[in-house]
Amino acid sequence: MTNVNVQGWLYNGLNAQRNIAILEYQPDGSISYRLNQEDELTHICEVSELQISARIGNSARFISLPNQVKFETEHNDSVDQLIKIATEKGHIKKGLYHKLAYRLESNIYFVVLTIAILISSTWGFVQYGIPFLSKEVAMILPAEIAAEIGQGSLEIMDETVTQESELTLSRKEVLRLHFNSLIPEDENNIPLTLVFRKSEFIGPNAFALPSGNIIFTDEMIYLSENDDELKTIMLHEIGHVVHRHGLRQLFQQSGLAILILLISGDVSTTSAMILALPGVLLEAQYSQAMETEADTFALNRLAQHQLEAKHFAAIMSRMEGIQNDQNQALEVGDNQENADFSSYFSSHPATQERIQRFLDTPSALK
Amino acid sequence: MQVDTQGYNEKPFKFTGNAVEFFGIWVVNIALTIVSLGIYSAWAKVRTKQYFYGNTLLDHSAFQYLATPVQILKGRIITVLFFGFYYALSAMNPIWSTYVSAFFAVLIPAVIVLSMSFRMRNTAYRNISFQFQRNFTQAYLIFSGPVILFAALFYLSSQLSTEIEVSSTLALSVEDEFKPPLELIGLIVAAFLLYPFWEFFRTHFIITNMRFGTSEFQFDTHAGSFYKVYGIALLLLILVVTVYTAILTSLELISYIDIQYLSEGAPLDDNLIVVGILSIFALYLWLYAYIQTAKTNMILNHVKVAGMPLESGLSVSYMFYLYISNVIAITSSAGLLIPWTLIRVARYRAQTLVFLTDKSVGSFIPQQQKELSAIGEEFGDLFNINIGI
């Protein structure tokens, strides 16, 4: 067995002076040093008295000696060899942690495997975990509490973008009767109310608020060619409330925010605010899934209410046509402000797909 | 600021970490933290700190991070217990939680002092620890100062506005009209005007209480330097927004013409929106880069350790390039390139920093050490208190 030499800086602990020194381990377990290759060795202590810092990559390694003396070196491999030999000789005890973390960190297979597992589990959590948990929690909540969320939304809309409806009382009454006939019977449902508002700003549209208010704009009523069309839209909006989409959106957004915070928590290398961007994209994906769910809800109940799928497709296509004529400023403003209202204003290709889905549904009516 | 380099030796900083190596450390840290349900996070923090400190060299000697994982873990456990207690209370009674929040707010200055103290004690260079004087009185004066000032201003302005209202109703008894809350606007303007002043005091407090061994840190500038940074930032913002608005207007004109000729404006409109949003992000990042860079340079160039100055030469455009490429790298890799961004920023910061030493460089003397718990620092981390120098 040979001696182990490690070159580095020696600090005396009394002031900031330093010396280049060679630390030498001898097979009998003693540690000595010399300042120059030609110098005589000076005995310092036994190897068991050393405190050697854990290896972290190739960063500087620190060895504490008795009397506040410290030795610093960049020769990590020599230090590892010193530890290995001293351990084999029984001069120092085995330190598991020291080696384990470094071995994992420097093992390319382990790192790649871990990355694969981390990516797939994060992806799975975002894709399925967050929507699933949000749904479970939202559906467990009693209807009264669920209806509390977003209580003030209608008031805010009235103050900003909507005015009182100009429809006649009898017209409203007819539509209310249609609406009431569509409400499913289920004790844990949020109470549903049909609300009419005029809004040039929003144009023809309908939204479901989490509180159970379903708003139709006057413009939407004028756009329809028959009441069956409006009934299919009502079913879609009822689907939003029954599936508690407003509440779920809230939970999903919080879940995503927490996840992004966890991932980007230690990012000081850029402005953290900018990193919220992917969250916005994911939220758009979630709300697409909710539109599909509300469509399914409507589709499943068409036959029961003597309605045809083509009516939904017809009015949607008409809305789509109007939207393409409108300028993009409205659309942008709408996506941001009405994100909670499960608005029809969604990105274009998805709307086409949705219409196609209704067109593909064979009529259940004879 | 130009530092007189005569009679000094330039000792450059250097960062020797590399992204591939740190990537392994980072991944294992995350994985073991998840597997151990958060317990390993204390070891993860220490390993990360040790990696960055141990790769930061000044004149060929590395910095050392001294805190042990067990210290960090204890601090984290106590902090988590505190917050658990807080959430339990607020779930039971919202009123109690307000009291607890107020109690926490009162603790913040003390937390900052303890946190700095822990951080400095556990940073060593050439076997000498840094220190932070635990000057609680100063901390409370500096952090409660603005609160007291604004409470007083608010009280005064509300008094003043009632008087005006009373006199106007008496004199004219005019019809109701919309009045902007002038006093509120005044307070906000006052806050903006006074913020650089307060930031100077805070920075001065942090730096002058730092020690390397027994040697003091000096901070030889005045509040004017902070006003200069923010003033230039404001001027640049006004300039860029004016130019930006002009460009946007001309672009809208182009899209209008396109709609006229092609009668299909939608795809172009979408592109315009994307370009508009991206340029606002870029503008924000650039302003952020300017303020961060100019402030860091200004602060570091006025710091002296036992009379020996630092010299920081970060470039705004390079920092902007770093920030924007970091955003692209992080978002397009779903976070996987975070370690790379940490390394490259550390490398750039180190290579633009120089310590100008004189003959007395070896004469720093260590101070007697006492053990200090990590509660302050972990509390500060959870509160997300940024001490920011």
Helical content band of chain A: 40-55%
Q: Give the CA-based shape of chain B.
A: globular
Mean pLDDT of chain B: 80
The string of secondary-structure elements of chain B, in order, is EHHEEHHEEHHEEHHEEHHEH
| DSSP E strands of chain B, number | 10
Number of domains of chain A: 2
Question: What ranges of chain B have pLDDT less than 50 throughout 5 or more consecutive residues?
Answer: 171-178, 255-268, 382-389
- CA-based gyration radius of chain A: 35 Å
Which structural class best describes the helix and strand composition of chain A?
A: alpha+beta
Q: How many beta-strand elements of chain A?
A: 11
Major pleated sheet of chain A: 7 strands, antiparallel
The rounded distance between the terminal residues' Cα atoms of chain A is 96 Å
Q: How would a textbook summarize the main sheet of chain B?
A: 10 strands, antiparallel, barrel
Q: On the 0-100 scale, what is the average pLDDT of chain A?
A: 79
With helices defined by DSSP (H or I, 4 residues minimum), what is the helix count of chain B? Answer: 11
Strand order of the largest sheet of chain A: 4-3-2-1-7-6-5
**Subunit organisation of the chains:** heterodimer
Question: What does this entry look like structurally?
Answer:
The complex is a heterodimer of chains A (366) and B (389). Chain A has helices at 76-88, 96-105, 108-140, 143-148, 153-160, 169-182, 218-223, 227-242, 245-264, 277-301, 309-325, 328-337, 348-360; strands spanning 4-11, 18-25, 30-34, 42-46, 51-52, 61-64, 70-73, 163-164, 193-198, 206-208, 213-217. Chain A is α+β, with helices and mostly antiparallel strands and 366 residues long. Chain A has 2 domains: 4-94, Pleckstrin-homology domain (PH domain)/Phosphotyrosine-binding domain (PTB) (PH-domain like, Roll), CATH 2.30.29; 143-360, no CATH class. The model of chain A is unreliable at 327-349 (pLDDT under 50). Chain B has 389 residues and is an alpha+beta fold. Chain B is built from 11 helices and 10 strands. Chain B has a 10-stranded antiparallel beta barrel, surrounded by 5 helices. In chain B, a hairpin with a 2-residue loop joins strand 6 (210-212) and strand 7 (215-219). At the A-B interface, helix 2 and helix 3 of A face helix 1, helix 2, strand 3, helix 8 and helix 9 of B.
